Amino acid sequence: MKEIVADTSLIAYCGLYCGACKKYLKEKCPGCPKNEKASWCKIRQCCMEHSYKSCADCQIVSTLNECKKLNNMISKFFEIFFHSDRLACLISIKNNGYETFAHDMSKKQIMTIRK
């Protein structure tokens, strides 16, 4: 199994930290940015189309709460089921930067800020 390390390339477009994800650590997923099978993800498609490293870089909406791709029924289910607050992750990235976010998440060994 892989070790949890701080690596900005393991930050998912939606703000999750793939570097602490069980599937990534067990080498069953390459992490969001490299996961070509995730073509179904609208968030990933949007970020790639606009060359954003994550939604934290978005220039399309004035606040991330307005984004219909980030705030849809699937994401609401994800938040409830996993107690995940991707918006808090993205705000942390926006306020503190990618390096700090990756470092904090790896230090805490978590893939998301909990709700």
Low-confidence stretches at least 5 residues in length (pLDDT < 50)? none
Using only CA atoms, what is the Rg? 13 Å
Percent in strands: under 5%
Strand element count: 0
Supply the helix-strand structural class. mainly alpha
Largest sheet: none
The pLDDT mean sits at 94
Number of domains: 1
Shape estimate: globular
Distance between the termini: 27 Å
Helix percent band:
25-40%
- Report the total helices: 5
* Element string (H = helix, E = strand): HHHHH
Question: If you had to describe this structure to a student in words, what would you say it looks like?
Answer:
The chain is mostly helical. The protein has one domain. It contains 5 helices and no strands. It is globular, with a radius of gyration of 13 Å. The mean pLDDT is 94.
Describe what is shown at a glance:
It is built from 5 helices and no strands.
Spell out the key features of this protein.
single chain, 115 residues, mainly alpha, globular
Secondary structure elements and pairings:
Layout: H1 22-25, H2 42-49, H3 73-82, H4 86-96, H5 98-108
